[in-house]
Amino acid sequence: MKQPVVTYRGCVNAWECDQWGHQNVQFYLSKASDAQAALGAALGLPPSYFRQARRAVLPVADRILFRRELRAGDILAIRSGVRSLDPAGTLRFFSAMRNEDTGGPAAFFETQARLTDLASGAAIPWPEPVLERAAALAGPFPDIPPPPDITGPRAPGRVAEGLVLTYRGSVESWECDETGTMPPRFHIARFADCANQLFRHLGIAKGALREQNIGTAALDYDILYRVPVQVGQTVEIKSGLLEVREKVFRFFHHLLDSASGEILTSIEVAAVFFDLTARKSVPAPEAMRANAHRLLVAASGVI
Amino acid sequence: MSNFIETFRGRVTPQECDHLGHMNVQFYVAKVSDAAWTVMHAIGMTPDYIRTRRKALAAVRQDIAYLRELKAGDLVVIESGVLEAGEKKVTFYHRMNNVETGVLAMTAKVLTVHMDLDKRRSEPLAPEIRERAESLRLCSGQAYRVREEGA
Fold first, then answer.
1. A11 vs B14, B34, B99: nearest CB
2. Residue ranges per domain, chain A?
3. I need a labelling partner for A282 at 20 to 30 A (CA). Which of A28, A178, B8, B147 fits?
4. How far apart are alpha carbons A88 and A75 in whole angstroms?
5. Which positions in chain B touch A41 (Cβ < 8 Å)?
6. Are the C-beta atoms of residues A303 and A229 closer than 8 Å to each other?
7. Taking CB atoms and an 8 Å cutoff, what residues of chain B touch A46?
C-alpha cells in the first residue's frame, strides 16, 4: 500500500502561538504551504523549475480540519499524498499534520491546486514527467479519507448588503512570495483577525471572554482562492454569520479587491468557544445567540 | 548504519533572504533551533518531559560551517545526531542539505547544557536520557566527517 511522503518537519515556536495558548491558524497554513512545495519537488517540480518558468502551483481550494491544538514546544510533521491529477488542470492532494510526540493528528488539508502561468494567470497543463510521478505517488490512502461534506447553510458566492465590513488594508511586500503573490498564511492571518470584529458585532467582547476564561478555536475551514492576491493590492473583508448551533457556530468571509469589489478569496469557518483551562468546548455565549438573528438575516437574503 | 535522524524539513522564504540575495545567517541558526526539539525528543527529552519536569537542554556554544548559499524557495532538510553525552552536557551535530541538489549547505555542532527551568541552573542529566543520547551517537566515520566539514 502506498504511504504518504514526509513533506514538512519542524516544531511549534512560542512566537507562533496566540493569546489562546496554541499555534495560531496562520502557521498551520504556512507549514502546509512548505509541504505543498515539497510535494511539488517530489512530483518533479523543484524550486529551479519555478525560477526559470515563471510559473507557480497555486491553491484554488483548501478544506482544513483542525483536530488538536498544538502548543509551543510540540514537534510535528506533515505527510502528503496525491489523490488525483487532471492533466489539464487540477492536482488534488492531502496533507496530514501530526504531533510527532503523541502521534495524534493535528490537522488535515485537502487541497486543489493548479499549475499557473504567472503572466496570464491561466492554468496550464502539467508537464508529462509530472503526470508519471503523480501516478506513481497517487493512491487510495484508505487511512486518510477525504473530509466529509459540509452540512448546513453555505456562504453566498457574492457580496450582499448587510454583510459586516471586518477588515480594510493592503497587501505588503513582506507578506508575499517570490512571485509577489500573497500565500495562504496571510489570507488566514487576516481572516483570524477579522473574526474578532465579527464577534464584536455579535456583542461578544474579548475582555468579557477573557474574564470567563474562554477562548475560541477553529474546527473547519473551507477556502476558495478565486483570484491570486498581489502585492500592493488594497483589500477589504466582508463577513456574515451562517448558523449558531449549541456549541459550533459557522460564519464566512469574502476578501475583496477594494477598487473593483471582486471577490478574491472566500472562507467558511466552523468554530467553537472553549474553556482555556479544561481545553474543552463550551456552549456559544448567550450574547451570540441573542444577536445572531441580525447577521443571519443579513446573510440569508443571498443564500 | 547511520544514527542520523531527520529533524527538520522546510523551505527558505523570501522574508529570510537579505540584500545579498540569499538566506541570512540568522535563519540557518533558526532552522537548527527548530531541529533541536526533534533531536531532543529522540533522546527522551519530549515536549511533555520539558513541561512536567521543567528541565531542558540549552545551547551554550555553536560552531557553524556555512557551506552553500540558499535562495528563496529552496527546500532544505536537516538531519541530526549526538556527538557526545556527558554528565551535564550533550553535543549535537546537525547537517542541512538542499533537497533539490542534494548539496550539503551547513553543518553545526551545538554544545548544550542540561538546565533546571525553575532554578535556572545546570544540573546532571537523568541516567535514562544520557543512555538514550549515547545510543544516538554518530559512529566514528560520521564523526570524522564532522572534522572534514570543518564544523
1. B34
2. 1-148, 153-303
3. A28
4. 37
5. 75, 99-100
6. no
7. 75, 99-100
β-strand pairing of A249-257 with A263-275: antiparallel
* CATH code of the domain occupying B5-148: 3.10.129.10
Residue B24 has pLDDT above 80, yes or no: yes
Annotate A230-290 with three-state secondary structure: ECCCEEEEEEEEEEECCCCEEEEEEEEECCCCCEEEEEEEEEEEEECCCCEEECCCHHHHH
Q: Domain spanning A153-303: which CATH class is it, in words? A: alpha beta
Region A38-43 average pLDDT: 98
Q: Which of B8, B50, B73 sits opposite A50 (nearest CB)?
A: B73
Whether the domain at A1-148 and the domain at A153-303 fall into the same CATH topology: yes
CATH 3.40.47.10 for the A1-148 domain, yes or no: no
Query: CB count, 10 Å around CB of A205?
Result: 13
Q: Name the pLDDT band for A297 (thresholds 50, 70, 90).
A: low
Domain ranges of chain B: 5-148
DSSP3 helix / strand / coil % (chain A, rounded to 5): 25, 40, 35
Provide the pLDDT for residue B85.
96
Q: B38 and A75 in contact by Cβ < 8 A?
A: yes
DSSP-assigned letter for residue B23: B
Helix runs in chain B, H state only: 25-42, 47-53, 127-135, 140-148
Distance of CA A66 to the CA centre of its chain: 10
What tens digit of pLDDT does each residue of B45-88 get?
999 999 999 999 999 999 999 999 999 999 999 999 999 999 99
Among B27, B75, B99, which would you mutate to test the A interface (most chain A Cβ atoms within 10 Å of its Cβ)? B75
Interchain pair B38, A9: CB under 8 A: yes
Count of helices and strands (H, E) across chain B: 4, 6
Residues B95-143 have pLDDT tens digits of 999 999 999 999 999 999 999 999 999 999 999 999 999 999 997 655 5
What is the per-residue pLDDT for B150?
45
The pTM score is: 0.94
C-alpha cell, A273: 468557544
Which ipTM value was assigned to this complex? 0.92
Cβ pair B8:A9 closer than 8 A: yes
Give me the count of residues in chain B: 151
pLDDT the model gives residue A286? 84
Asked whether the predicted pLDDT for residue A229 surpasses 90, the reply is: yes
Q: Which of A5, A6, A11, A76 to mutate to test the interface with B (most CBs of B within 10 A)?
A: A11
Query: What is the share, in percent, of chain A residues with pLDDT greater than 70?
Result: 98
Q: Residues 6 or more apart from A184 whose CB is under 8 A from it? A: A29, A30, A32, A33, A59, A62, A223, A225
